[in-house]
């Protein structure tokens, strides 16, 4: 019976009730045990009602468009989305999931070509920053992650996130010790860097130095998963034609080549393999800058030898073998630009 | 001496020679029995569908899904993972007949191996059979080709919301391909597959080109796609052109095709067609959604420099808005009478394991004839449809014709092969056992 009472509440009433409950929860969070419990219960109850309005339940359909748009309007006006996210860790377990469900549903709302919630969030970027900071709190990190990835689908929101200082916190988030949080953060990080090709390419070009100094740390991370994942992502980024400028810049830096050559010798075969896919770009470059060429020449024989014995068990993988053969041929045929550069001292490897 | 011994022991058997008359008599007797023609009604001759379980590697073979110039596509079941797959069977013998055939296949394998995206068909396994000179490309199972869906739709076009859903995925896939420096060169409904959950997959990388990772731009020189989907710069025989923009054009023609059921350019034969494309004059059909028309105009710009980029398409209003769902989508049409397109591998497995228990399905010659008649009628109607398509469309290169003819021949041979004739006799009323 209480079910009917609740569903008859108008969107405005629901939003108001939820806001009050949240406010109560916020002020009471320190001491009032009984009252806090009551407030928490209220929050959860109202969240369920809102969720049912948007998604329907097993025995009722979602509400009509008019009711949903009223609800959305109320959510914008009351600034409730931000409030919910700010107090996410006070809300109980099911409630946290409901917040994510409501948030994502409202975010996807579309009227013709307009996405009103996206426009709303553009005017309230704190929502995004609060969500990003959610990775610092274990109990809400994954909920924030689902909301963030939903946001990242929209170019306008992805742009705000990418160009914010907070974005660089991801370089820490992806390395935290809790595995599920780190990998969730990594998938959001990857989404932001690959989803909107043109935007991402522009971002990487304009922030090249900053991004790649940070990135270098990931590649040198003590955490195996971080090292492997970031190396794989680096390969994907460099080999995407949209990032052509970034790629040419990256492969002209001898330090990057040294790093990759060292990674080719890592203990993990998977890392060796990923490193190969970045290393090949340096060698295939038809216009190798002098420092790069010098390093390759210094190690010419060793590289040929090393590559010949490199992952020989992958005989099934034709592409890999073709590429390897090509690299060996390229390295063998390397000719020094000047005669004095032929010193065979091998300092690298 | 020996003769003497023999005589008493072996009394000579009485041989009764028949004279000619008697033979004639005897013959007449036997002959008269069987000389009368036993009329067997076609309903009484029965056939049984051959259900022999065949395996290639770890895959259990099912029925044919489709056929192209290179060979057949069959459904298979992975016996280890129990997933449904499709296998493209390529016979070396056939490939040699197609210009660049073997190169194209090598290409396709190489590209597909390195690509991984939701909207690009995944190559799972490649098997070779040296003895039969065959190659098997095992791929993700897709339930339907967009072309088939289109052909089954009223007026050969899809409702806008459905077309939009596929188009968005096509652009996603294409953007990924271009990001990998891959130019598909043959985007058309016939190369777009659909899965059961309505995910579009770009397939057929036979004429795909890959850019050198260090090439400064996307200049291409080949241009081998299907004529009706080729851009003016290829139709006019330019030596080099922008590969990305050529794909955009084909994608534009595809969008035009799935939303209107027509083609922007037509021609009685391939020369006329290419001539018309070369002029690049076309018009939006009346009554088409104005936003969609605007997108089409920009995707089918004569000058490839003015033609939209993927980014511009993404930012176009029609792309961003989701057209209102106007009723039902065009459903996936039945395949060979099977509305659900259910697994064709299972019957083979069932008959292999439970043959005794299974009620065999028998065909009589009468049924067969009727089915053949039906098929013939369908073929004529579909071939007239094909004619219509090819008139305002593509395919018109010679090899397509020859392969079609030969595939027709094959088809006939196959239907014969499929049935074991008269393995048992249901009832032969007029036939006396001798």
Automatic annotation (TrEMBL), chain A:
<dbReference type="GO" id="GO:0043539">
    <property type="term" value="F:protein serine/threonine kinase activator activity"/>
</dbReference>
<dbReference type="Pfam" id="PF08569">
    <property type="entry name" value="Mo25"/>
</dbReference>
<protein>
    <recommendedName>
        <fullName>Mo25-like protein</fullName>
    </recommendedName>
</protein>
<dbReference type="GO" id="GO:0035556">
    <property type="term" value="P:intracellular signal transduction"/>
</dbReference>
<comment type="similarity">
    <text>Belongs to the Mo25 family.</text>
</comment>
<dbReference type="InterPro" id="IPR013878">
    <property type="entry name" value="Mo25"/>
</dbReference>
<dbReference type="InterPro" id="IPR016024">
    <property type="entry name" value="ARM-type_fold"/>
</dbReference>
<dbReference type="InterPro" id="IPR011989">
    <property type="entry name" value="ARM-like"/>
</dbReference>
UniProtKB/TrEMBL annotation, chain B:
<protein>
    <recommendedName>
        <fullName>Serine/threonine-protein kinase STK11</fullName>
        <ecNumber>2.7.11.1</ecNumber>
    </recommendedName>
</protein>
<keyword id="KW-0479">Metal-binding</keyword>
<dbReference type="GO" id="GO:0004674">
    <property type="term" value="F:protein serine/threonine kinase activity"/>
</dbReference>
<dbReference type="GO" id="GO:0005524">
    <property type="term" value="F:ATP binding"/>
</dbReference>
<dbReference type="InterPro" id="IPR000719">
    <property type="entry name" value="Prot_kinase_dom"/>
</dbReference>
<keyword id="KW-0723">Serine/threonine-protein kinase</keyword>
<keyword id="KW-0067">ATP-binding</keyword>
<dbReference type="InterPro" id="IPR039154">
    <property type="entry name" value="LKB1_c"/>
</dbReference>
<dbReference type="Pfam" id="PF00069">
    <property type="entry name" value="Pkinase"/>
</dbReference>
<feature type="compositionally biased region" description="Polar residues">
    <location>
        <begin position="377"/>
        <end position="408"/>
    </location>
</feature>
<comment type="similarity">
    <text>Belongs to the protein kinase superfamily. CAMK Ser/Thr protein kinase family. LKB1 subfamily.</text>
</comment>
<feature type="binding site">
    <location>
        <position position="88"/>
    </location>
    <ligand>
        <name>ATP</name>
    </ligand>
</feature>
<keyword id="KW-0418">Kinase</keyword>
<dbReference type="InterPro" id="IPR011009">
    <property type="entry name" value="Kinase-like_dom_sf"/>
</dbReference>
<keyword id="KW-0131">Cell cycle</keyword>
<keyword id="KW-0460">Magnesium</keyword>
<dbReference type="GO" id="GO:0006974">
    <property type="term" value="P:DNA damage response"/>
</dbReference>
<keyword id="KW-0539">Nucleus</keyword>
<keyword id="KW-0963">Cytoplasm</keyword>
<dbReference type="GO" id="GO:0005737">
    <property type="term" value="C:cytoplasm"/>
</dbReference>
<keyword id="KW-0227">DNA damage</keyword>
<keyword id="KW-0547">Nucleotide-binding</keyword>
């Amino acid at each position: 019976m209480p079910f009917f009472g609740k569903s008859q509440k108008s969107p405005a009433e629901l939003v108001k009730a939820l806001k009050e409950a949240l406010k109560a929860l916020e002020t009471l969070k320190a001491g009032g045990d009984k009252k806090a419990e009551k407030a928490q219960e209220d929050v959860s109850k109202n969240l369920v009602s809102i969720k049912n309005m948007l998604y329907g339940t097993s025995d009722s359909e979602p509400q009509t468009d008019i009711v949903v748009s009223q609800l959305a309007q109320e959510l914008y006006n009351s600034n409730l989305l931000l409030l919910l996210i700010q107090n996410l860790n006070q809300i109980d377990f099911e409630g946290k999931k409901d917040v994510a469900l409501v948030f994502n549903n409202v975010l996807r709302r579309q009227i013709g070509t307009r996405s009103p919630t996206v426009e709303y969030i553009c005017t309230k970027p704190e929502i995004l920053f609060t969500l990003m900071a959610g990775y610092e709190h274990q109990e809400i990190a994954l909920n924030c992650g689902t909301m963030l990835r939903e946001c990242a689908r929209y170019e306008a929101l992805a742009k705000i996130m990418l160009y914010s200082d907070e974005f660089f916190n991801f370089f820490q988030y992806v390395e935290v010790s809790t595995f599920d949080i780190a990998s969730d953060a990594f998938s959001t990080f990857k989404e932001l860097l690959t989803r909107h090709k043109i935007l991402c390419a522009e971002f990487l070009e304009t922030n090249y130095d900053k991004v790649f100094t940070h990135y270098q740390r990931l590649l040198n991370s003590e955490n195996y998963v971080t090292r492997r994942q970031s190396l794989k992502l680096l390969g994907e980024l460099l080999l995407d034609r949209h990032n052509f400028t970034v790629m040419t810049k990256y492969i002209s830096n001898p330090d990057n080549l040294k790093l990759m050559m060292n990674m080719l010798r890592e203990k993990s075969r998977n890392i060796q393999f990923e490193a190969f896919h970045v290393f090949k770009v340096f060698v295939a470059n038809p216009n190798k800058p002098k420092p790069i060429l010098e390093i390759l020449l210094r190690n010419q024989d060793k590289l040929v030898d090393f590559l010949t014995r490199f992952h020989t068990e992958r005989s099934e993988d034709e592409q890999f073998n073709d590429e390897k053969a090509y690299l060996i041929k390229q390295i063998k045929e390397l000719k020094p630009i000047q005669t004095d550069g032929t010193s065979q001292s091998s300092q690298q490897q | 001496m020996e003769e003497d011994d023999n005589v008493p022991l072996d009394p000579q058997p009485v041989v009764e020679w028949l004279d000619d008359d008697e033979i004639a008599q005897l013959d007449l007797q036997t002959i008269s029995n069987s000389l009368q023609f036993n009329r067997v009604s076609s309903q009484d001759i029965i056939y049984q569908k051959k259900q022999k379980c065949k395996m290639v590697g770890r895959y259990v073979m099912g029925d044919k899904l489709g056929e192209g110039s290179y060979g057949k596509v069959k459904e298979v079941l992975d016996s280890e993972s129990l997933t449904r797959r499709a296998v493209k069977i390529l016979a070396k013998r056939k490939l040699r007949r197609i210009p660049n055939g073997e190169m194209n296949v090598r290409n396709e394998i190489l590209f597909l191996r390195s690509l991984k995206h939701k909207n690009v068909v995944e190559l799972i396994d490649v098997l070779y059979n040296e003895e039969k000179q065959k190659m098997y490309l095992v791929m993700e199972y897709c339930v339907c080709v967009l072309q088939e869906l289109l052909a089954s739709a009223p007026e050969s076009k899809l409702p806008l919301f459905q077309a939009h859903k596929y188009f968005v995925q096509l652009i996603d896939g294409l953007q990924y391909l271009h990001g990998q420096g891959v130019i598909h060169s043959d985007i058309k409904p016939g190369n777009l597959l659909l899965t059961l959950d309505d995910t579009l997959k770009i397939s057929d990388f036979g004429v795909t080109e890959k850019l050198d990772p260090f090439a400064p731009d996307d200049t291409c020189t080949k241009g081998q796609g299907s004529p009706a989907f080729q851009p003016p710069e290829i139709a006019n025989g330019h030596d080099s052109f922008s590969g990305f923009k050529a794909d955009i054009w084909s994608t534009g023609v595809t969008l035009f095709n799935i939303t209107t059921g027509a083609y922007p350019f037509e021609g009685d034969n391939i020369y006329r067609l290419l001539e018309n494309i070369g002029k690049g004059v076309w018009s939006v059909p009346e009554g088409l959604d104005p936003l969609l028309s605007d997108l089409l105009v920009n995707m089918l710009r004569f000058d490839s420099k003015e033609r939209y980029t993927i980014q511009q398409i993404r930012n176009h209003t029609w792309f961003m808005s989701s057209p209102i769902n106007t009723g039902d989508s065009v459903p996936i049409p039945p395949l060979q009478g099977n509305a659900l397109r259910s697994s064709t591998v299972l019957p083979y497995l069932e008959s292999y394991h439970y043959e005794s228990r299974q009620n065999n399905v028998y065909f009589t010659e009468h049924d067969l004839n009727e089915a053949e008649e039906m098929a013939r009628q369908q073929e004529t109607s579909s071939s007239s449809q094909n004619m219509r398509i090819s008139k305002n469309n593509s395919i018109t290169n010679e090899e397509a014709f020859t392969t079609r003819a030969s595939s027709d021949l094959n088809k006939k041979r196959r239907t014969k092969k499929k049935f074991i004739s008269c393995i048992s006799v249901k009832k032969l009323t007029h036939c006396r056992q001798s």
